[in-house]
Each structure stands twice: as C-alpha cells, then as structure tokens.
Amino acid sequence: MKTSTMRTIRFAMLLALAAAGAALASAQSHPSASGSLTVLLQNGSGLQMVLYSDPSGVTLGNAGTSAASLGFGTVGAYGSLATNVTRTNGASSFTVSTPFDINVQANGLTSTSYTLSASLASAAPTGVTLQLDSVTLTTTSQTIQASQGYGSNISHTLSAIVSTAASGSGGPTTGTQLTSTIDFVATAN
C-alpha cells in the first residue's frame, strides 16, 4: 500500500474515533431541570378512640376502629349462650354480660387523662335495660370513667338486662332482634 493511502486511512480512522468520542461525550451529558415543593401542615391535637375485643369477651365486629359492633347472639333466661357471654337470672329478668376494650390515644395535648361518657343514641327497646360498668344508660350522656390515662386497652362490661315479663306486659317479644347504639365520648381532662 502506498504511504499516502496509509495516511488517508489513518486520518479517516482518527476522524472516526474523534466523532465516536464526541458522540459518546454528548450522550453522557444529561439535561436537567429543577423545581421546589413547599410543604404546609398544621400539627393538630386531639383524641382518638378505638374499640377492641377483650380477650374474655365476644369478638367485636369491625374491632380496631371507632365504630365496632357487639353481638350477644341469641339469649334467654335458659339455654346455651355465645362464647364469653355470661348470664345471671333474677326473679323477673335475666342479665347477659360481656367485656370489651376501649383505647383512647392523645396527640399534642398536655392532658394526662380523659373522662369517658356514654349515652344511647335512642331509647333502649321495651323490656331491655343496658348498663355499662353498672351505669344504666339512657339517651342522656353519663360519666362512665372520670379519670383514665391514655394509651391502654381499658376493659368495660356491657350488660343487657332483659325482662322476663310476657310480651305486652313490659317484656320483649320472644324471637325479636333487639338493637341499640351506644355513643361514647372521651374528653381530655
């Protein structure tokens, strides 16, 4: 091969390498953009109430929330009861009871305790009296616990006292499903 042809090939190879290097350098530089995000929040204070199944009580429906349900199942003065429901018979009534837990958490408060109150959303069914920790519930809010610390599962006992009087004489009709709603309020002390 002639020397000038060799030089041309070498020159062409050098140009090709230089072009490849420039393309590689161009591909390695990344375009960028910038932005900013302003975050706004206000740390609020307050209380949270959560209802839990008690280990000695019936399993709550929707446990671990602030809106649970407690089902006693089919009850009567005699016969079998659901697991963890107890019964006491009286002269003209029987009482079924079970425990459940309430946990109240505080955030951003200087309070170290709360007062728990409860009331029925509407009057109890005819022939049934509901008690929470021996406090008879009505549609008027009543104190259940005056000074309880935050952050622990606190056991409470719900009792339903059912009249055994005949239907029409102040007792509930046999086979009727009886439903009540209890409203709880925790107030920081």
Account of the 3D structure:
This protein has a single domain (46-188), classed as Sandwich (Immunoglobulin-like), CATH 2.60.40. 14% of the residues lie in helices and 35% in strands. It has one helix at residues 3-28; strands at 46-53, 86-89, 93-107, 113-120, 128-132, 135-136, 142-149, 154-163, 182-188. The protein is elongated, with a radius of gyration of 36 Å.
Topology:
Layout: H1 3-28, E1 46-53, E2 86-89, E3 93-107, E4 113-120, E5 128-132, E6 135-136, E7 142-149, E8 154-163, E9 182-188
Antiparallel strand pairs: 1-3, 2-3, 3-8, 4-7, 4-9, 5-6, 5-8
Short account of what is shown:
This protein is mainly β and 189 residues long. It has one helix spanning 3-28; strands spanning 46-53, 86-89, 93-107, 113-120, 128-132, 135-136, 142-149, 154-163, 182-188.
